[in-house]
Amino acid sequence: MSVDFDVAVIGGGPGGYIAAIRAAQLGMKTVCIDDWKIDGKPALGGTCTNVGCIPSKALLEASAHYEMARDGLSNFGVDVIGVDMDIPRMQMRRASIVRQNNDGIAFLFRKNKITYFNGTGSFAGVENGEYTIAVTGDETRKFTCTNVIIATGSKPRAWPNLPFDEERVLSNAGVLSLNDVPKSFAIIGAGVVGLEMGSVWRRLGSDVTLFESQPELLAGADRQVAMEAQKQLTRQGLTILTGATVRKVRRMPKGVAIEYDDARGQVEKAVFDKLLVSIGRVPYTQGLGVDKVGLKLDERGFVAVDGLCRTNLKNVWAIGDVVRGPMLAHKAEDEGVAVAERIAGKYGHVDYKGIPWVVYTHPEIAWVGRTEEELVAENVSFKKGVFPFMANGRARTMGTTEGFVKILADAKTDEVLGVHMIGPMVSELIAEAVMAMTFSATSEDIARICHAHPTLSEAVKEAALAVDGRALNM
C-alpha cells in the first residue's frame, strides 16, 4: 500500500510551516497539522504569530507611538494636545495583524499545494518504515507518511503551584490581551519577554516592577550592552530589581502578593494588580504519542536530536523550540528549511554560531557571536571598537542617540568574533553583522565598505574603524 504523504509536519509555527513550504517546493507531497484556533477559526503560525513575536511587536509599536505623541513630538516642534490611548482599539489592531499573518500562511499553503489539517497530530504507530499519524480535532482522521518533522514548539513555564488564570496571573498570551491598564504590574523574569512587555505597559501608564534573580540584567548579553540597557530602561521608569529571589507568590481577590529577597538578602513584600510570569518555556510534547513509536526525549523533556535534527527514529526529525538550542523563531525557520532539504537529499545548513538575538525595547538590543566576557574566559586575544549613536548624524535627526555599536575582532586575524548593539533600529542593523560573520569577514572588510550617509548603519562602519583606533567621527 502506498503512503499518503512524503512528509508530515506536526506543528504550524515558524519552524513547521516553513519546513512544509520548503518540502513542497522540493516536490514532496506534504501535510501540516496544527491545532491553533482563534475565535473558533484555524490560526496557522503557532506561538510566534498568535501570542508571541507578531502581536507583541504590534503592541510595542502602538505604545511607542503613544509615548512619542504624548512626550516626544514637542522636541520636533510638533505640539499635540489631548493625547489619549484607546486600549480596546489597540487590541483590535493587534488581532487584525495576527489574522492577516494567519491568512497569509494559509495562502502560502494553498499556493504550494500543502494539505492542512487543523487538530492535534500524534504518532499512532509505525510499520515497515511507514508512520501512521492520527489527527484529533473537529474531525478524527489517520494517514501514513514516510518522513515526519516534529515542530510542536513550547509553552510558558508556570510559577510552582500557581497556574495561569490570564486575569491576575498572566502568561505571554494573557499579557497581550489586556483591555485596561493596570495601576501596578509585576513581572517575574527580566528576559526578552519581560523587558518587552514591561516596556509596553509602562508606556501606557502602569507602574512596572521586574524581578530578576540573576545579579545582572540579560545574562546572555555582553555586559557593556546589558549595563547600558539597564541604565536606559530604568531612566524611562521601569523598576528592575536584579538579584531579587521571589520566594512566595499568592493570588489575592484583587491582585497578587509577592514575597522576595532583595539583592542584600532582605525579605520584602509587595502587592500588585497584575503579574506576568516570564521564567522561560518548556518543550511541548504532550499528546504527541512518543511512547507509541519509542521516540526519545532528553532529561529536560526536549525531543533528543543530533546536530542534523535527526531523532532516534529513522526519517523522524525535530526542530525549533521542542529541541535543544535557543527558542527563537528564526532558528526554527532555518532548521525547518535545512531538514526539508536533507529529506530531499540535499545539503541543509544551519549556522548556529550566527543566530542573532534581538530585544525590541527602546533602545533596541541586538547581538550575534561571542561576548567580550566569553572571549576573556576562553583566553582569546581580541581587539574591540565601540562607536556611540550620539556621534551618528541620522540618530541625531531621529532624536534617538542612546546606545552604541561594539565590534570584537580577533587580535591576529582581525576576523569578527562578535557584534553587540544597543540603539535605534539595531534589530535591522544586526543583519549586516550576521552576514559579515557568516563570510568570516574582518573588521577591516566592514570598515572598507561604503555605507550610505546619513544612515544608522554608519555606526557599524565606524565601530569597525574603531577596532584599529581610526574612527572618523569620534
Would you mind describing this structure in some detail?
The strands form 6 sheets. This protein has a 5-stranded mixed barrel with strand order 1-2-5-6-7. The chain is an alpha/beta fold and 474 residues long. β22 (404-410) and β23 form a beta hairpin. The chain contains 13 helices and 23 strands. It folds into 3 domains: 5-156 and 282-353, FAD/NAD(P)-binding domain, CATH 3.50.50.60; 169-279, FAD/NAD(P)-binding domain (3-Layer(bba) Sandwich); 363-467, Enolase-like, domain 1 (2-Layer Sandwich). α3 (53-72) runs antiparallel to α4 and α3 runs parallel beside α5 (192-203).
CATH fold-level label of the largest domain: FAD/NAD(P)-binding domain
CATH architectural arrangement of the largest domain: 3-Layer(bba) Sandwich
Residues in β-strands, percent? 25-35%
- Percent of residues in helices: 25-40%
How many individual β-strands?
Answer: 23
| Helix segment tally | 13
Q: What is the CATH C level class of the largest domain, in words? A: Alpha Beta
Secondary structural class: alpha/beta
Largest β sheet strand count, sense and barrel closure: 5 strands, mixed, barrel
Strand order of the largest sheet: 1-2-5-6-7
| First and last CA, distance | 72 Å
Mean of all residue-level pLDDT scores: 97
User: How many structural domains can be distinguished in the coordinates?
Assistant: 3
Low-confidence stretches: none
CATH superfamily of the largest domain: FAD/NAD(P)-binding domain
Using the CA coordinates, give the radius of gyration.
Answer: 24 Å
Mass-distribution shape: globular
GO molecular function, one term: flavin adenine dinucleotide binding
InterPro entries: Class-I_Pyr_Nuc-Dis_Oxidored, FAD/NAD-bd_sf, FAD/NAD-binding_dom, FAD/NAD-linked_Rdtase_dimer_sf, Lipoamide_DH, Pyr_nuc-diS_OxRdtase, Pyr_nucl-diS_OxRdtase_dimer
Protein name: Dihydrolipoyl dehydrogenase
Domain FAD/NAD(P)-binding: 5-336
